[in-house]
From TrEMBL:
Protein name: Response regulator
Transmembrane segments: none
Keywords for this protein: TPR repeat
Stored Pfam families: RapH_N, TPR_10
TPR repeat ranges, renumbered to this chain: 224-257
Gene3D superfamilies: Tetratricopeptide repeat domain (1.25.40.10)
Amino acid sequence: MAHKIPSSEVGVKINQWYTHICKFEVEQANDMKRLVEEEIHEMEEDQDLLLYYSLMDFRHQLMLQHLTPVHAGSETLQAVSFPKEMEDGEDEMTGLLGYYFHFFHGMYAFIQRRYIEAISYYKHAEHQLILVTDEIEKAEFYYKIAEVYYHMKQTYFSMHYAKKARDIYKKHQLYGKRSIQCDFVMAGNWIDVSQHQKALPYLEKALKVCEAMERKECTSYFKAMALNNLGACHYSMGTYHTATVFFEQAISLYQKDQASTMIKSLFSLALTWFKLGDIQRAGEAIRRGMNEACLLDDEIYQLKFQFLQALYIEKDSCEQLRSALFGLRSKKMFADLEELALDAANYYKERDMYKESSTFFEIVIEARTHIQKGDEMYENEA
C-alpha cells in the first residue's frame, strides 16, 4: 500500500503558497502551486484541506488577473469565477475556512466592482478575524477592506483600516509592495478630502521606492501606479499640465507591460485634456480608452467614456449623458456617478444653462445620499 502524505504537511505548503501570493511573488507562487497539486494526489483524505486548496487556487488566479498582461491570449487572462463548489458548500464552511471563503469572495466582488457586496463579505470575514493568528494575514484583511471603502468614498473608514495594515507591513520589510499600496490608499483618501499636501509626501516617497523596485525586479507595474496616483493628485489640485505628464508616463509603462489598469489612466488623461481645452488630444485618449474598454468588456469604463464623448465632444447631449449616468447608478457606482454628474452640472452652469445644470446637481445629491448611507447599505446587502 502506497504511503499517504499527511494532510497537515500539504496544509503547511498551502500556507507557504499563500505567503508568496500576498508578496506578489509570481514565480515562487506558481512553483508552490505545482508542488501542492502534486502532493494532493498522494495525500490522505481530508475534505477540509481540499476546500482550502480550492480557495487558495482561486486566490492565485486573482493575483494573476491583477498582474498579468491582458493582450497575450494567455489562459490566465480569462475571466476568473468564484468556484461553484465553494458557493454550494458555504454552509459547511466554519472556522478559518469560513473566514477565507468570505474574505476571498469579497475580493472577487471587489474586482467585479460590486463594492457593496464586497464589503458585506468582508464584514462577515471580520467577525471571524479573531481566528486568524498571523499578523500579516490580518494586515492583508485590513488593506483589502480599506481598498473597497476608499472606492466607496467612505474616507475615514478606509483610512482607519489602511493605517492598521500599514503599521503591520512597515514591520516586515518583505512586504514592501503591500506597504506601498497602503500608502496609495492613504493618499487617495487625503485627495478625496482635498488635503493634497498630506497626500503628496506619500506618493512622492512611494514613487522613489517603486523606481528602486523597477531596477531590482524589472517590473514597472507599481511605478505606473505611483505615477497615475500623482497625476490624480495634481488633477485634484487643478495643476492640469503636471497631471497630464504623470498620466502619460503611467500609460507608457502600463502599455509596456500590457496592463489592464491602463484604462484608468487613459480616462483621467482624457478628462484632464478636456479641462485644458485640448479637444483633439482628449478625443484621442477617449478613442484609445474606448478600444481598451471594449477589449476588456469593461462596461463601467464604456459608460464613463461615453459620458465624456457626449459632454465635451458631441455637446448638448443631455439624454446620452443621463443614459451613461443611469447605467452607473444601476451598477451602484455611486462615487463615479457623483463625480461625473458634478462635472456635467458645472459644465452647464458655466454656460448659463441653469435648467440642465440643476438636473445634474440633483443626480449629484442622489449619489451623495447613497454614499453617506454607508454601512446601512452594506447591512441591507448582507
